[in-house]
Amino acid sequence: MIPDIGAVLKAQxxxxxxxxxxxxxxxxxxxxxLGQIERGESSPTVATLWKIATGFNVPFSLFLSDPAAPxxxxxxxxxxxxxxxxxxxxxVTPLFPFDAELGFDMLEITLAAGARSDSSAHDSGVIEHVLxxxxxxxxxxxxxxYRLESGEGLRFQADCPHxxxxxxxxxxxxxxxxxxxxxx
Length: 184
Description:
The chain is α+β, with helices and mostly antiparallel strands. The protein contains four helices and ten strands. It folds into two domains: 5-63, 434 Repressor (Amino-terminal Domain) (Orthogonal Bundle), CATH 1.10.260; 84-179, Sandwich (Jelly Rolls), CATH 2.60.120.10. 21% of the residues lie in helices and 34% in strands. The longest helix has 12 residues, at 5-16. The two termini are 25 Å apart.
C-alpha cells in the first residue's frame, strides 16, 4: 500500500516542529507547493519529492512505501511492487523500502526515451549504487559523465548533484540502492 504523500510530509514537518516556511527553506520547494501537497491538492514530481526527502534528511522510499517493518526474508519483484509515476517519462518503484537497521533503500527506475532526471545532492556520507538492468544510461556525477550499459553499474558519493539521462530511443531500466550513514 502506497502511503498518502501529503500525510507523510505533514507528519515529518510536524515531528520537527517546522513551519511551512522552514520546510521550504530546507527543501528548496516553495511554501505554496508544500502546502498544496500536504492538503492533497497537488502531487509532487519525482524531482520535487527527491528535494523534499533530501531536505528532510529521510529516504525517498519513506513517501512511497508502507512503513511496516521489513520481514527477515522478503521476496520482492518489480513485477508485483507498486510503481509511483507522476509522468510517463519516469517511473519509480520501491523494491525494498528504507530499512533503518541496514541503512538503505532500493528503487527500480525506468526512464523513457529522451527522459532526464536531475538529483540534488544527498546528505554527506550517502552512497548510491546504480545498476542498469536494460538499456543504456548516461549518468553524470558532479561533472563526470558515465555511460552504463545493461549489466554495468556505478557506485558514487551521492552528496553532490547527479543526473540520469536516457539519450536512446528505448526505455532504460536501472536499480538504485541508496545507502545512508548510520547517524540517521
